[in-house]
Amino acid sequence: MTFGVRSAYGTLERVLMHRPGPELDLVTEQTLREFNFDRPVDRTGFVRDYDAMVDCFHADGVDTVFLSDVLAADDDAIATLNRRPNVTYTRDLAAVFASGAVLMSPHLRGRWGDQRLMGRAFERLGVPVLGAIEPPGYLEGGGVTMIGEDTVVASICDRANQEGAAALRALVLGRDVKYFLEVPLPFGYIHIDGIFMVLDERLGLIFEEAFRTFPCWLHEAGRAEPRHVMFEEFLEARGVERLPISDDERLGGHLNVVVTERGTKAIGFAQATGIADRLRSRGWTVSTFPSNELFIGNGGAHCMTCPLLVR
Fold first, then answer.
1. pLDDT digits (tens, 9 = 90+) for 71-104
2. Structural domains of the chain in order of their starting residue, each with its CATH number
């Protein structure tokens, strides 16, 4: 198999990415809101940080597949890539499961249609596309994760709605997973991956406050009505140990961690020293890269990777 993702914590073997280029110059004072950047970026510095991140993946034995290479013969796709500053955040555009990929539906107008480029790449890579989230449904890959191998999680947040979550549920529940957990978040939260990150089957990082407002809806294949459960109670029932993070760590994007080898290796921001220290105390090897310029786009290693193959 050249694709297949059965968990959020297994060994990452292959990942789809996009190395940013001239499209970053389109991020100006006038377009910051459209593209969700804090300010115009220094393209040289941004790409330097990005390449340092890619080096970490290579050092951990991960096969990095780049959109521009896969789509090199597609002139329309390449021309589009050069006009889309957010394509580098490939996770938001699609999610790959055991049986294939689902194209997401980005919320920001500056990202509309970017998921189609992922669809073209999946076709060339031999990854089946199970379906697509379509408006009025909105859902982004940063709002989707898995707990264990039997549960897909989708957050209802500032970038996702119930229609988007329901569309994903219809595609994967009963085919790839037995359970589907919808997690409503309070206003002000963009994606679940900024406040909860699976590290291993029974280990995760969490900003606890965000999950104490609303109950979640747990759907089970073959069962008509969902059950209601608080998120932390669900994790407790699964035996997941939760490592709390601070508000400063949340705001700094320190949760943006990618597991590259199950239970032993991960990649994250160099400034996320607290999280790295906690993992190293448990025997993990944590590779880090500078992100002073990279985080101006409000994303990191997790946002910039769409896993293709996880074992």
1. 999 999 999 999 999 999 999 999 999 999 999 9
2. 4-310 (3.75.10.10)
